[in-house]
Amino acid sequence: MDLAIDQSWKPFLEKEFEMPYFQNLIDFVNHEYEHEVCYPPQEKIFSAFNHCQFDHVKVVIIGQDPYHGPGQANGLCFSVTDGISHPPSLINIFKEIETDLGTPYPKSGNLERWAEQGVMLLNATLTVRANNAGSHQKKGWEVFTDSVIKAISTHQNEVVFLLWGGFAKKKATLIDTQKHYILSTGHPSPLSANRGLWFGNKHFSQTNNYLASKGKRIINW
To answer: Hey, which family's this protein in (predicted)?
Structure first.
């Protein structure tokens, strides 16, 4: 596994790289990529970090697992590579942005454009075996990504954390609510959205209102 991660993150994560659990994780991931089809491509495992420098983080969105279909995952949660049809959760995210902000539904599902504005698109598990959701969970990734959330909480100020669904909401315990702003709602998946737990949350306008109130540039969603 290529540990090419943006230099801005290294002071906060280098200790993790040296921990026994992380060495075991590297061995597991390397073995999986060698013997199985896995996603995202190895060079994109740390895309969330490489498209959003540590000192630029303004918003954190927490996903659970990369997409496990061919060509979908690009290392950013909920995002897909250009030219790939939008998965159901991403469609519902874009529909909510349409109604919340009055902006047209975008052609591209590649969310690098968000990341480069300071949106950290962090999956709790950064890799997955093809067509096998959750196959790389509980191998060490969650320990690592929890440490990422804690580092942002500790060393940054006035970050918006968007916690969508039960899994993401559990991460609230890692976040200092005295310094940061948490917005929680249901998951954008059809299962949750069709039960009235997603649409109308207005997280995107609320995020921008908060950023503007702190003198920060808003996100062009």
So the answer is: Belongs to the uracil-DNA glycosylase (UDG) superfamily. UNG family.
What CATH number has the domain bearing residue 169?
3.40.470.10
Please list the rounded mean pLDDT of every run of 10 residues in the chain (221 residues). Answer: 88 96 97 97 97 98 96 97 95 98 97 98 98 97 98 98 96 98 97 93 98 98 98
d(CA 210, CA 26): 38
Number of domains forming the structure of the chain: 1
Beta strands per DSSP E along 23-118? 38-39, 59-63
Determine whether 65 is an active site residue.
Answer: yes
Q: Is residue 137 part of a domain?
A: yes
Partners of residue 80 on adjacent β-strands:
73
Distance CA 221, CA 206 (A): 12
- With a CB cutoff of 8 Å and minimum separation 6, the contacts of 80 are 67, 71, 72, 73, 74, 86, 87, 90, 109, 110
Q: Which of these is catalytic: 2, 55, 65, 82?
A: 65
What is the residue whose two structure tokens read 């949106």? Answer: 119
Domain of 178, in residue numbers? 7-214
How high is the pLDDT of residue 185?
97
